Amino acid sequence: MMLFLWLSLLFMPVSAALSGLGVWLLAGGEQQEDRELFRNFICLLAVFMLLYWGTVNTDSVRMYTDPQFRAQTEMDANPIYNAFKDFSPDDHRTLHEFLILRMSQGATLSEAFLQARPLLDQMANNRLGFADQKSRVEWGKVTADTLRELQTVDPELCYRVLSSQPLDSQTLARVFSVANTEAFQQAVAHVYESAGRGIRHERTPGDTPVEFNAAAREFHTISDSIAKQFGEPVAEQVARKVFPEQPTEPPAPLCAARIAQLDAMLERPQAMAAMLIDSALR
């Protein structure tokens, strides 16, 4: 912003200096009347003022000189930001304020979006019930893959995310791969886009209804399998989605059981998987 202000302050001095140089070059060392010199100076001043101001205010230059313009331009090109803007004004306002605050503290847009990940995760889960089946399955896969990455790094970090506890900026930047971050952001955008259509009662081609009792039977089948693998206490916590800040069971089996639960749900046909994922994550 300071650079943009300096360029604005130099607007007249630079234009006048260039105009004076132009008058001298046009004169070619010959003596001219004051009226002619003044006319040439004014004409050149107008030309240089237009050129200078036009150049300084082009988008390509403002991307380097005006941080606020650069930040807004980068946000407008982001699919999550646009999905929120198009389908949820309230959530868009919340996200916008979060990103602006983080960038005002020195974060880049990508860093700000990374720090917004817990917020985006919560918002997407809240919208999941309106999303189409393909978007729910995509969201379930990203969630399972995210927990898997965290489990590999540190089971306690996995459990912190599982229990909706925040991670600090340094940890967020360290634990998620670029591929996972991109898949997460794409899935958030798809959930919001399809949820927006769902709220408007626009049916998605290919979505098929699932009987509640059939879904309940599948859920119990998966829960029984989790109990055999990890024990009844762990299976019960995962089935009831009870994850207190202080785990009552070791974090590693709890996270592994949750991942196994989501993976088992995702193995079902899309319609059934979507219903089970919705039940598990909302």
Outline the structure in words.
The chain has 282 residues and is mostly helical. It has 17 helices and no strands. Helix 7 (89-104) crosses helix 8 (109-115), helix 10 (133-153) runs antiparallel to helix 16 and helix 14 (212-230) packs antiparallel against helix 16. It is elongated.
Provide a count of the helices: 17
Poorly predicted regions = 1-7
Multimer state = single chain
Q: How would you classify the helix and strand content by structural class? A: mainly alpha
Mean pLDDT: 83
Radius of gyration: 29 Å
State the helical fraction. Answer: over 70%
* DSSP strand content: under 5%
Distance between the termini: 43 Å
Order of helices and strands: HHHHHHHHHHHHHHHHH
Shape: elongated
Please sum up the structure shown.
The chain has 282 residues and is an all-alpha fold. The protein has helices at 2-9, 11-27, 34-56, 59-65, 67-76, 79-87, 89-104, 109-115, 117-127, 133-153, 155-162, 169-175, 178-199, 212-230, 232-240, 251-266, 270-281.
